Amino acid sequence: MSCPSCRQRKPRRACPALGQTICSVCCATKRLVEIECPDDCPHLSTAREHPAAQVRRQQERDVAVLLPSIRHLTERQHQLFFLFHSAIARHTPQGFTRLLDEDIEQSAGAVAATLETAARGVIYEHSASSLPARRLATDLTALLVQIRAQGGTVSDAEAAVTLRAIEQGARDAKKTDDGTTTSYASLIARLLQVRRTQAAAPQETASTLIVP
User: Which pTM does this prediction carry?
Assistant: First the structure.
């Protein structure tokens, strides 16, 4: 009998989210990324309290890649950064295509350029070259409209700075050791996993952005 998730390794851990027994590798790598783990999962609790050395090294590498592009962001822009990335994580490309780092880079750059142009008083929509990037750009623009509709005060210039950080991050990820076409997308999936864990803790100050 093999793991129902990867169908390769022997199942060893009971997964309360799937109601099945899966292998330890799938448990560790798909936790909160592909598997919606409940908070009372013992394996999730153990991982939060005692992260493996491999996980800590990966987190250090992720910070090293991401820090140059976000170190200049304000607190509000950091909030917006994670909102945009939540939209990117939810985005589903049409057909059999995958969302590549190049698509994220193009879409963030195109929307940022449109906002920068609007901030100068000129209405002109910049467009990404690839179809998946254009579709993602539509989602990013829709998210910004939604934030404002719910009362969030986000200027065009502020959103553009945040999107330029995402554009740079996706570009920098291509220079890392693994250098895959989805290095940045994978990094953000891990980052959002950590963010969800932190969001469960009490917050000291209220967000100045309205989260859709």
Answer: 0.67
